[in-house]
Specification:
Length: 227
């Protein structure tokens, strides 16, 4: 809870999907120069930027490797907003990342399950069926997304999805070339058609993804910058 106060978050534990357990050695292994750089170059995901700055342009592979902490890059192209995020904590399999201005993205098995600080946030997502299908590269899972409307009333959106393995693709993340399995998940309901894309290693690590948050935010693109 001291960490919550230190970064000025006003959200409680009930709405943060994974903030109870902090990395044990984060303070000892963090390179202050790299952290300072990340904070200076991190662009808040909440507000659109008239002149977007991609923090990846200010980082190097050497700096990432020497940081001693996991680093995530995330971007919302609709808002022209990009940021580097550090690992905030893990709770019951949900891993939460935080930007310098307190915005959080939470993932379970690499699938986005919650956001905080983006405006129309994804409060929670049931991704159990989707995760199994994405790891296998095939299936027809049902997805459920939960939101709050303008009067803080719950809104639920359900989707029927189809998962397909799109073969292997080589991508590069800061000098690391990775040949990964590309999986596409198409989901539909009467209102929306969405398409999530994942680049996955043989160990089921999702190195890169483009995942839908909601109709207001659109998609979040993310990359794991750390090895």
């Amino acid at each position: 809870m001291k960490l919550l106060a230190a970064i000025g978050l006003s959200l409680g534990l009930a709405v943060l999907a994974g903030c109870e357990k902090q990395p044990k050695n984060a303070a000892k292994t963090t390179d202050p120069t790299v952290l300072s750089l990340a904070i200076k170059t991190a662009i808040g995901l909440l507000k659109p930027q008239p002149k977007p700055v991609d923090p990846r342009k200010h980082l190097t592979r050497q700096a990432i490797d020497q940081a001693g902490i996991p680093i995530l890059f995330a971007g919302i192209e609709r808002r022209h907003a990009y940021a580097t995020l550090s690992l905030f904590g893990e709770n019951r399999g949900v891993v939460t990342w935080v930007s310098s201005d307190g915005i959080t993205l939470s993932y379970r098995g690499g699938l986005l399950v919650a956001t905080r600080g983006l405006g129309q946030d994804l409060m929670a997502a049931d991704t159990g069926e989707a995760l199994a299908a994405i790891r296998s590269g095939a299936g027809k899972p049902v997805r459920i997304y939960d939101y709050l409307d303008g009067e803080d009333q719950p809104v639920r959106r359900s989707f029927v999805c189809k998962v397909d393995n799109s073969g292997r693709e080589t991508i590069e993340i800061f000098g690391i070339k990775l040949t990964l399995r590309k999986v596409v998940e198409e989901c539909n309901n009467p209102e929306y058609r969405i398409e999530n894309t994942y680049w996955i290693s043989g160990q089921h690590r999702i190195w890169q993804s483009k995942q839908w948050v909601g109709p207001d935010v659109g998609y979040v693109f993310s990359q794991q910058l750390s090895r």
